[in-house]
Amino acid sequence: MATTTLRPANGLTNGSNKIRFIPLTYNQAESQTSALRLILTLRPEWEDGKIEFVRFTDGITNTLLKVINKKPGLSEEEIDNEAVLLRAYGQGTDRIIDRERETQNHELLMQHNLAPALLARFHNGMLYRFIQGAVTSPADLRREDIWRAVARRLAEWHAVVPCLPTPRQPLAAEINGSQELGIPAPTPSRKDPALQAAIDNVAPGKPAPNVWTVMQKWIYALPAGTDAEKSRQASLQKELTRLVAEFSNRPGLGDNSLVFAHCDLLSGNVIIQPRSASSPNAPETVSFIDYEYATPSPAAFDISNHFAEWGGFDCEHDLLPTQSQRLGFIREYIRSYFAHLGQSLSKADEEAEVQRLFVEVDIYRGIPGFYWGIWALIQATISQIDFDYASYAEIRLGEYWAWRSEEDGSRKAAGEEMTVREKRWAQEA
């Protein structure tokens, strides 16, 4: 990143902390025309400039464009310093993502110098300052200098950013039960306050939103038009109820055992910051982008979720971190976490924290597959992006079921071979 120091953003309304709203829409079919209209509304002084668009394709749900104004005489770095990122949401993703919450996340991270300045929002996206640096690949995530940098930055997020609940409107309607789900089910209106209350209360005692409420929202959003779809929704609901009972009250780092988690720390969301000319041999540093899935979560979930991304979208399970790599990552994380809290631990206490978190991450290893499996089932019905979400859903849910069968001994009892992912997870070095 060029800098994480906050500067006054031209997109902010004068005398207010509210982010400017531009009443326009990005249209994929008229990409350059609609993007240009948005940029010139934000930066009218660019009208006589040489505006260029660079499309990024690292994500699989949103459109991301870098917009630059190539003024004569400026260096590439100077041009990048004024560049703007345009992010347009994928079709139907409001069924999955709370966009108001995403904006709150971005503003909250800005306050802690962990996000670029958010310049404006528009009907189906946002505009923010460009982040200089190199986007990582899954192979980069497996480099020791990079995974140590990720561990340090993730620990900073978890230590310094508070978990803030989202206020809700008072309950205005009852919600009917459902034999299919066995618990309160959605009313005909997906915006019914009763539905929101059922989601928020899925993990009693935990402030909403959190990773459990997110999964509950997604299960409610699953297609249920056929008997097979209804059966799958009911099965996944049963598993979520089981997961909440088993995991939501486990002890862990943070207030109420929750930290402000990224929850989507794939390679495309990790940026390697340029090294300073004065410190060419300094350790690598990284920053994170895209905060649409960020929510309070157990630290162990966020870390195990990141480890799953070492294999990329192709889910190459034989490339996931071994025990020794996970232990090294967690040691780096724990040192950074308590340093950011201003706490000095003895070597013995630090190692005890490392071992506790190592065990928790191991226990959580199957849950990211459940999380992204549900997500992909929804994407398979709404996305227009050329990606096989249905197959991806089966792979990720397969990770969850393989973990379950390993934990309860059913795989061994059936005489079946351990999956590649579980073998890799058990590998020491």
Automatic annotation (TrEMBL):
UniProt-recorded Gene Ontology molecular function terms: ethanolamine kinase activity
Cleaved signal peptide residues: none
GO cellular component, as recorded: cytoplasm
InterPro entries (UniProt xref): Kinase-like_dom_sf
Keywords for the protein's UniProt record, in alphabetical order: Kinase, Transferase
Assigned EC number: 2.7.1.82
GO term, biological process aspect, one: phosphatidylethanolamine biosynthetic process
The keyword Transferase is assigned to this record: yes
Annotated pathway: Phospholipid metabolism; phosphatidylethanolamine biosynthesis; phosphatidylethanolamine from ethanolamine: step 1/3
Region (Disordered): 408-429
Family, similarity comment: Belongs to the choline/ethanolamine kinase family.
PANTHER family: CHOLINE/ETHANOALAMINE KINASE (PTHR22603), ETHANOLAMINE KINASE (PTHR22603:SF66)
Protein name: ethanolamine kinase
